[in-house]
């Protein structure tokens, strides 16, 4: 959707560069995932450094000399820090920005140390792997992910990452939930695409939405006769073209799935009334296709 929205050329033009941009944007989601894992690793390192410096104080108290090491001994954080395959990928892709931007690590560690989730966790001297994992997940959800300064940092680093952040956060937490003490190193390095078909779908939807833009716009125009084309939000037009493309060119995608997907996207990215408008146009389109026998969907329950 973002790539189609940014597309400025005509249907007949060579849009190879835009396809490259699309694939790079998708790859960028994986980079963001690695950046966030690198952040967890750096927070863990910073916490350990902090304990060591506290112990070395000349006038250290008894508590400072014998600190509670539960956080730095957290089994999940240690698995991340000691995962050679993960750290090698982060290094090779030059995605550990936190060495230079260490102040954000400091900000987040301070926020963690002040949080209820941290204090509740530290109040018990011993924990299991399960409890360690639950703490890391809660820490990420309640302290790290909602942090405004981190949000601003990510937006400044790469503008497309802000739109990717919710889905990356969701998948990062899903991967952490499935983590086990004996998980292989590759567990933390999942494939970006489930299979090659996913990647091909993204490229195909992009290309077919572009190549049929005029046809789709004519259809949209006929179903929005009471609307001046200038009044239709540009993003709404892009979503309608993509939905029509799925109706016509992707027989295995259920109609309801297409409609629900674009309504959710509209609620997230477009105007307050966009989802109602898009729903109306798509509903009218489906009824027309059904009456004219144009809705050629394969398989049960795809209508």
UniProtKB/TrEMBL annotation:
Transmembrane segments: none
Domain NusB/RsmB/TIM44 span(s) in chain numbering: 193-286
Top-rank taxon, per record: Bacteria
Record keywords: Coiled coil, RNA-binding, Transcription, Transcription antitermination, Transcription regulation
Short name of one Pfam family: NusB
Any coiled-coil regions, as ranges: 37-64
NCBIfam families tied to this protein: nusB
Family: Belongs to the NusB family.
Protein name: Transcription antitermination factor NusB
Recorded name of the encoding gene: nusB
